[in-house]
Design brief:
Layout lengths: L3 H7 L8 E5 L6 H12 L2 E4 H9 L3 H8 L1 H16 L4 E4 L8 H10 E7 L2 H8 L13 H16 L4 E4 L5 H16 L5
Parallel strand pairs: 1-3, 1-4, 2-3, 4-5
Helix pairs in contact: 2-9, 3-5, 4-5, 5-6, 7-8
Length: about 190
């Protein structure tokens, strides 16, 4: 196993202003892994959903209920664009953010994207721990996650990097991301 701290200290982005954006379905670990990755890299972490709630002055379930998904997606696009123009960070996005063509183009232009790829069984177990997923309240969560995976995984595959986020330790996922970033950016990590 590689010493992640050694890799993190030698990690050099081609553009030091570049943000690392985590994409994937709800429950893939974007927030949990993102916090640990940012700490390991010594940069800030931001959660796009939390920033959207702050900008809107209400929760995401309230935005969905009161204004609908299209209004949420428009606000999400604006917030992510603003965050990408800010200082470098690890940015966790909501599951649908990368599906928006404009948001995806912005992410591709201004950051390095990492798809946290998780099996539906893992997503189901993780999302079942909280009751704050508006899209899962509209029917059977397993059916919804299976459908979303089928719809979204081909688009998530456009991310710069793909890392498996199975049921293992978050530290292992962080280590895999750092190794993949080094490989993607052509850094030596021997």
């Amino acid at each position: 196993m590689t010493d992640t701290r050694l890799i993190a200290k030698t990690l050099h982005r081609p553009d030091p202003r570049q943000t690392i954006v985590l994409v994937g379905l709800m429950g893939a670990g974007k927030t949990t892994v993102g916090r640990r990755l940012a700490r390991e890299l010594g940069i800030d972490f931001m959660d796009a959903d939390a920033e959207i709630e702050k900008a809107a002055g209400c929760t995401i379930p309230e935005i969905f209920k009161n204004f609908g998904e299209p209004a949420f997606r428009e606000g999400e696009k604006k917030v992510i664009s603003r965050l990408l123009d800010d200082t470098p960070k690890v940015l966790a996005t909501g599951g649908g953010a990368f599906m928006n063509e404009d948001t995806r183009a912005s992410i591709k232009e201004k950051s390095t994207s990492v798809w946290l790829d998780a099996d539906v069984s893992v997503l189901l177990e993780r999302t079942g721990r909280k009751n704050n997923r508006p899209l899962l309240k509209t029917g059977d969560p397993e059916e919804i996650l299976t459908r979303l995976a089928a719809e979204r995984y081909p688009t998530y595959a456009e991310a710069d990097i793909r890392v498996k986020s199975d049921g293992g330790a978050h530290e292992d996922v962080v280590e895999a991301i750092i190794k993949a970033l080094n490989d993607h950016w052509g850094n030596s990590h021997d």
